[in-house]
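Example 3.2
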Amino acid sequence: MFTRQCDDDVVSTEQLVNASRSEFDVEPPYDVRADDLPEGRFLDRELSWLRFNTRVLELAEDPNLPLLERVRFLAIFATNLDEFFMVRVAGLKRRMAAGVAVRAASGMLPREVLEAIWARTKELMTRHADCFHSQVVPLLEKEGVEILRWDELEESHKERLHKLFSDRVFPVLTPLAVDPAHPFPYISGLSINLAVVVMNPQTQTEHFARVKVPPILPRFVPVEDQRFVPLEDVIAAHLDQLFPGMQVLQHHTFRVTRNEDLEVEEDDAENLLQALERELLRRRFGPPVRLEVVEDIDPHVLELLVSELGVNEAEVCRLPGPLDLSGVHAIADLDRAELKYPAFVPATHRDLADVESAHPPDVFAAVRQKEVLLHHPYDSFSTSVQRFIEQAAADPNVLAIKQTLYRTNHESPIVDALVDAAEDGKQVLVVVEIKARFDEEANIRWARQLEQSGCHVVYGFIGLKTHSKLSLVIRDEPDGLRRYAHIGTGNYNPKTARLYEDFGLLSSDRALGEDFTDLFNHLSGYSRTTDYRRLLTAPRSIRAGLIERIEREVEHHKAGRPARIRFKLNAIVDEAIIDALYRASRAGVPIDLLIRGICALQPGLSGLSETIRVRSILGRFLEHSRVFGFENGGEPELWIGSADLMHRNLDRRVEALARLEQADHVEELTKLLDIAFDAGTAAWHLGQDAEWTRRHLDENGNPLRDLQELLITANLRRR
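Structure, written as tokens:
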């Protein structure tokens, strides 16, 4: 079956037809061949993503950041790159294998993109390893935190680790030989392995074996207080016990990254849940896309690995050990407050705190008075959104709760509250997106747990992911039924809500409540409602609605009225919207884009994008919110929601944006955007050459304003 890679999803032609025939109407694909715009106006999305991960690496390299935070950014960089290979590089390889030679919007063929990716990633991986070894490790040692190799350990430490190996490690190891009776073993993706060469002293025959480093054991083994050694070093030092009677000649660490994207044929599946479970089993056996080896690996051993794994030389990355620096998360977690960002505990939002007493805040009472605009993590998630759902579950006057779940944490109070509500007899509808990448298994567990408790669980539409973050509560009150709604830019996940920057809106507005009712009926039944009062939805109206408002700004500008466009996003790739922005820039409309990750738009080009500025802010919190602002002739219009400007969000996901109605909310977000785009705020700036330049110091070398620290300080002052 022919497939093509679209953003982060692999979609079959049949699935595309299914999506277009779903209850949502999908707009036709955009033709990038615009006669009035030049070719080559789009940046390649894969290379733009690599530039984003470069910005993460620059934070790890920043000597002004707390040391353990630099360690954290090293781990984040490594984890990001793993997922990039598992999904994006895997998709490009699949397209090449299928003979697909369609040029991307950037004008590059898949082969050309892959070549550029490999050149860039090898440079970045080398730079990443150098940062760890040359910068971070020596600084850690000065602070009494040591990551040692086996040969650096004292004899007393080795003795202690001998016992640890015998008691805790040896019993779970399984050495696998390779010979005519034992074929080359399957190497699981992202596992750390030892390639071992042993010799039979009687026959002088050499043999190859593989030993997998158990992922259930700590990646870095404590030697004593804040001194660690990699687990693979401990295993390597005891290989003679795994191969008794044999002579261990050499050993080398290696690691394989596999294609771990999913290809669920939804149109053929009688049961989507079962189809996804089958595909999750197949995911483990995806083809390799990258082989990482230690830089001193024996050429013959490397030749064997390359041959047996079916990778080519370009896909081999030679690095100094230890491999897989995503494991240094454990080092970043050390209890050393002086080496981290100062502790910050979110406070209850002021509009909720006003009704707070000795008891938890009454969210319903607050939201009846006015809408509440939340800004996480500065505003507490637990005393706002989580409390909203928990209060609804416990309130005898609540008749029904409707909820979308895309990602949540392992022990979710949100799920617990929904279970309690269903068991209490309330009508509970949960739209669980079981296709949320890398959270599929967890979401299947949530779905089954919710079903067993009596919740009505649905999985949305074939061919579409439900990505919108919505909650609706129907409550019986003295003056009749009242709807309470929450829409967010981030997931219903209390853990990430402390780390991700997101907006949320709590409302009892009648129009918004009716919109939510229509949308949930759309998700669970056969409603064909596509027109809403305060919402734009995808895949029906977000792209068209935003383009209409971009063009409206052009008309305002031509008429001499105030006109300006400001977006805050994770990514912008959609060609139709980018072209609309180009045309608005040609007309003279000022445009500011705050993009955390991928940006396919080129700013500052003469005659095309001279009025467009693109900034990026990375820091302590992950900038995750999506905000769409239009000056609108002096009557600003702002929208928040879950959609980035990517094909997958606008065409293959159920998304929702909500318009802010209250003047104080519009003013609050306007001020935030003012600060974000101010020249005195630290940020990365995207240049005409497609490269990002970090500007965090003024001309005198003094630090520029840190947006996140400014918001933390403002939050503390309000208490």
